[in-house]
Design brief:
- The protein has 187 residues and is mainly alpha-helical.
- It has helices spanning 2-15, 53-75, 93-109, 118-134, 167-172.
Length: 187
């Protein structure tokens, strides 16, 4: 009976929260539950276009390594007019954004927590769509290399910045500008 009482007392002691005034001998290891500070939560990945300076350069270097060492050798089909590519893809912000998102999804789906079907999901939901958008005949690389024998690079001009109008004028009468253009817009 005495031994059972001692075991119950020891279990109660082990189940109770640690004494806040007592420093654990394991505190230096930083292990939660052993008196050390809780580990810092990993930072959430941010889209590469939101990064600046050295942080962006480091992320772009790592992305370039993944694209050059893994993505292109495995999934970089022949360069043709229907599947253009650009050796200077890093200068195409839209392509950088697509490839970065694809890389983040790859890292997530190759994590052991993604399970055995993680790579299938990555292929089905991310790779196929991203590569089709990036390498479309009228896509962001369409003015670049369409033949391996003719390397080319040209960043296409994007749309102009939106024209803003006076909302009070256009909201009451779309012809108020006198320009004859709908909603007060002029060329």
């Amino acid at each position: 009976m005495e031994q059972s009482a001692q075991q119950a007392q020891q279990l109660d002691h082990l189940a109770s929260p640690p004494n806040p005034g007592r420093v654990s001998p394991f505190a230096a290891f930083g292990m939660p539950g052993l008196g050390g500070p809780p580990p810092a939560a990993p930072s959430e990945p941010r889209p590469i276009l939101e990064l600046h300076g050295e942080e962006r350069e480091d992320e772009l270097d790592a992305l370039t390594d993944w694209v050059d060492d893994f993505l292109l050798p495995v999934y970089g089909a022949e360069v043709t007019t229907s599947t253009p590519w650009c050796r200077r893809w890093q200068q195409h912000d839209d392509v950088v954004a697509w490839l970065h998102a694809l890389w983040l999804a790859y890292k997530q789906h190759t994590d052991p927590e993604a399970g055995l079907s993680g790579m299938f999901v990555w292929h089905r939901d991310f790779l196929t769509h991203a590569m089709a958008a990036i390498r479309a005949p009228a896509g962001p690389l369409s003015a670049c290399m369409t033949s391996p024998d003719r390397p080319a690079h040209r960043v296409l001009a994007g749309p102009q910045v939106s024209t803003r109008t006076d909302r009070a004028t256009t909201a009451t009468d779309p012809r108020a500008s006198g320009s004859g253009e709908p909603y007060g817009l002029t060329a």
